[in-house]
Amino acid sequence: MLGLDSLTRVALELRRDVRAARDRDPAARDVGQVEILATWPGIHALLAHRVAHALAGAGIPLLPRSISMLARAVTGIEIHPAARIGQGLFIDHGAGVVIGETADIGDNVTIYQGVTLGGTGFATGKRHPTVQDNVTIGSGAKLLGPITVGHGAKIGANSVVITDVPPNSTVVGNPGHPVRVDGRRVEGPDADWIHLPDPIAEAIEGLASRISALERSIAELSHEHDAPVAEVRRLRPSRGPNPAGG
Fold it and tell me: What is the DSSP annotation of 172-191?
């Protein structure tokens, strides 16, 4: 049943949610906790979900879904009352975020606007993603099905992820391609979406390099040492400052 313990747990979780927003949102660094609580839509959506989830766990009908529907109308964020969400989730901006019924989100996860944790098909049971701790999910990313996103992973903006993601890796593209980056990266949210690895671009660059080497070999065999050789240009910069300030 819903009691004092449940209300106390909701209050503690709300305090952690506010702290997460203040720590991870540059716009909140000079803003008080009361203002964050009053004006951050991600906080409103999480508070509504914490209450709806507690009511659903207590077996109360209708009210949990009504709270979820009201929160969606006010914030643009839809979280099913049965979804399980850990401590310190931060939903930045939040418009268009959808979190399905059997989704399971760990601690210290960061989600940007337009993200979907959705299901596939009409099967019952576990049909939504499991997101482990310290994961960052970029704007517009779609995570579909009962997949697992490993601890510390980073999902690039607009990626479509339909398979498991290894821990401490980065996923980009449609369908998403997991790419391990520099071994184990530093824990915590990472908002540098400019310098993500691109396996398709790297493959094309490898082919271009191979063509350049073959042209050089042909030029040497035909004694045309002055023959032009195709120039290989990087498709996009791989170095540069982190726009997130990291």
Answer: ETTTTEEEE-SSSPPSS---
